[in-house]
Amino acid sequence: MAKPSRAVRISRPKPADATKNGPVGKATTKAGKAAPATAPVAASGPQPLTDGELEIVWKTFKRTRDENLRNTLIEQHMPLVRSIAERVLQTLPKSIELDDLASSGLFGLMDAINGFDLSRGIKFKTYCSTRIRGSILDELRSQDWVPRLVRLKAHRLDRAIRQLEGELGRAPNQVEIAQVLGISLDELQAHQAEANAKAIFSLSEKWDDGEEEKEMEKVEILADRKSANPLDTIQQNDALEIITSSLTKKERLIVLMYYYEGLTMREIGEIMELTESRVCQIHSNVMMRLKTQIERTQEAAAE
pTM of the prediction? Predict the structure, then answer.
């Protein structure tokens, strides 16, 4: 039967200005007068341990594997996790949250604590920094829908293009790029097709236009290319009003249903209770009158 782990008691030095005879919470001067009491300062987070205390915790944890001691080590190194996450965040899009990176780095810290070997004589900060950063990058790669090999090819292609632009002073052609990469033109075109994979952007991401008071999301400023242009709609309505102003009600309905509703002459005749030939006759008369009206307007404008 395993023996229960013993609690580690870490003794901290007493404050230097405290005296045995002085009142609690107050410091006494040489003259014996009590100095004004100061308000206690609230500690933000766990108090950092000294090197000696941290060494005791490490040795005891490696011997007992106590979860409380492991949590103590995690709390002591959480600022390092956040610091590494902040540095990685500087190279990422704004849609990535710092807390998500810190959560991923926390798993790397836990693995580093479990796998750290005290006998190797290296600092834990040096050992865990690599594990934390690697855990963050692994999580980012797992969320990337583009294969890593495609990303490497795209970076290699970009480096070759930038190198040639610096040497030639102009944009390189495909033959020059293929020679630098040491591949054929067909392979270069395949690389370019893979590198042109579309990226995913968050429509909820804030649009930075330099004005903090007017924060907008990208979804609010995207253009809907399928929607009609308001200016074109106004011009079409004005032109329709001018063209049909001289028509009768029956003629106006035929023009609207044929050109705007997309109905056939037969369907218009069924709606208006007219024969198809009669609808065609009315339509032809309307077109002849509108043509004459337009020609007169153009002649008047030319004079």
Answer: 0.45
